[in-house]
Amino acid sequence: MAETIFTKILSGDIPCHKVYEDDLVFAFLDIGPLSKGHTLVIPKEPAETLDQLSDESAAAIGRVLPRLCRAVMKVSACTAYNVLENNLPLAHQAVFHVHFHIIPKPNENGGLGIKWPAGSLSSAEGTKLAAELSSAISADS
Ligand code: AMP
Predict the structure, then answer these.
(1) Coil, strand or helix: which one is 27?
(2) Is the pLDDT of residue 22 over 80?
(3) Sequence spans of domains, the chain
(4) Ligand 1 midpoint to CA 32 (Å)
(5) Is 88 in the pocket of ligand 1 (CB under 6 A)?
(6) 3-class secondary-structure state, position 137
(7) Nearest CA owner, ligand 1 atom 13
(8) H-helix segments, the chain
(9) Active site residues
(10) Cα separation of 40 and 69, whole Å?
(11) Residue 1 pLDDT > 70, yes or no?
């Protein structure tokens, strides 16, 4: 995998405002925050997208995410927040190293803005899609 700005942060070549570190996980403040306290949580493993991440690193992030969210909530004095993880440029990924954004939502206009063009799901479509997904998950286990 190519070196990214986040691998350089992990190696200490580029400075950051670190907020957390353990054997597998690192977290630091986003340099272009959408709101006060906007934090990035990354695996030390250099996976580009979430689907490429090992179970071990994914579990390590999952274990610590709620604690980091609570810290962000406390320090930014917010109760609402978004956790966002983008994969590939079409989905707004700019840095090709897995990262979870924790973004406080202080008010209607602050934090992350989301378009949510909800469609509909028929019973037949849902049955077919769920079966396809279940079988894809089984094939990947
Ligand atoms: P994404 O669009 O999900 O790939 O988000 C990349 C994020 O990385 C953006 O929110 C940037 O502000 C943030 N970012 C880029 N370079 C740095 C850096 N050197 N330190 C902290 N955050 C950064």
Answers:
(1) strand
(2) yes
(3) 5-114
(4) 7
(5) no
(6) helix
(7) 30
(8) 5-11, 55-76, 123-139
(9) 99
(10) 11
(11) no
